[in-house]
């Protein structure tokens, strides 16, 4: 039987992951002849960690998902730096900019999203590209341009107070820039935070050298003069970093006649309205999840690999309950579920603790004694316990205040460290890695963070679990009398 020809369009995090998952189930390519096409010339990289590259704590090589030998070792026809110009559905071929045509039996669209530039005078040139002194924060190349342009001590304006905008602002402030965040809403991260949490977060970041202009719009940009705001004021800026949102990259899909609405519309089998064409990640629209986070994309990749290889024809994707984490040095923030639920919401128990002087804010939403939403800022112990309750659907402890403070228990005495969690506890949400799998990797010889990451993928997603994984390694090393190493 001839192998099915599967073409993955997009070599970002989602495209790389679905290729890995397919080869995990079909290592020698007997069932799937796999081609991966990427528009960016470099190997796939972890886009979630770009803020760490911007901050200087990681270099470009450290965030790569694959080395140069990956494609050959795994029987993948990898074509980086190549643009797909069209999908010819009647003929079942993918057309490339170099004139080549690739026949397919199935396509996986993993085209991701593109940065959105607001219609502000001076932000774009006559071609629609960012003007001189303006850089969107989206790709590894963008990071390099920002670092090259952001001289220490120079004023930088960040357009957008969402998750990526704040991560960019923190990274630039850590490099010594004078950073001002301009955001049109009255508080930052309004999708993930309520107004109280937004105020405390802005105060915390303000103490780290970041200024905020909230509830205003940028009206115009003139290189050398900075940004003019719609309230008549101005913000000095030698560089403008734009992180004002993204749009699903659906232009190829729309041209091919696929149904799209804020992404390619997909069902639980991750199929578009053409059953031969699937979509995953930021370019896809599924009612059970939101875009912009890595965990849904990787869960979708696993389901789709099961379906394409025949490993599990009944596999279906039903959505992902996500936890958002801000990856900014000296700030610990987690938000999940019903973050905007009010105290008087029917059927809900809502508790709130605000301590802005110490940079702490905690909000907990429960229904029928289960955690359905939370915002936890500046309290990592509480965040760890609440996230475990949310993931496992366990009843919340009766001591609600202790839970908000991180001083209560799950189903064991209060854990003094992540190492004391039960074996089933999920340590890495992005890859659904439990403490038990990390212990197993240790027993199989993984003694470093890098080795554990290679064996289990823990810490290779958003990176938010790195300290927890290292804590478990330290604990295991102490038990065995063999110190763990935190380097790769």
TrEMBL record:
InterPro entries documented for this protein: BFD-like_2Fe2S-bd_dom, BFD-like_2Fe2S-bd_dom_sf, FAD/NAD-bd_sf, FAD/NAD-binding_dom, FAD/NAD-linked_Rdtase_dimer_sf, NasD-like, Rubredoxin_C
Keywords carried by this UniProt record: FAD, Flavoprotein, Heme, Iron, Iron-sulfur, Metal-binding, Oxidoreductase
Pathway membership: Nitrogen metabolism; nitrate reduction (assimilation)
Cofactor(s), by name: [4Fe-4S] cluster; FAD; siroheme
UniProt key word Metal-binding: yes
This enzyme's EC code(s): 1.7.99.4
Pfam families membership: Fer2_BFD (PF04324), Pyr_redox_2 (PF07992), Rubredoxin_C (PF18267)
FAD/NAD(P)-binding domain residues: 5-300
MF GO annotations: iron-sulfur cluster binding; metal ion binding; oxidoreductase activity
Domain spans labelled BFD-like [2Fe-2S]-binding: 426-474
Family, similarity comment: Belongs to the nitrite and sulfite reductase 4Fe-4S domain family.
PANTHER family, A to Z: NITRITE REDUCTASE (NADH) LARGE SUBUNIT
UniProt protein name: Assimilatory nitrate reductase electron transfer subunit
Taxonomy of the source species: Bacteria, Bacillati, Actinomycetota, Actinomycetes, Pseudonocardiales
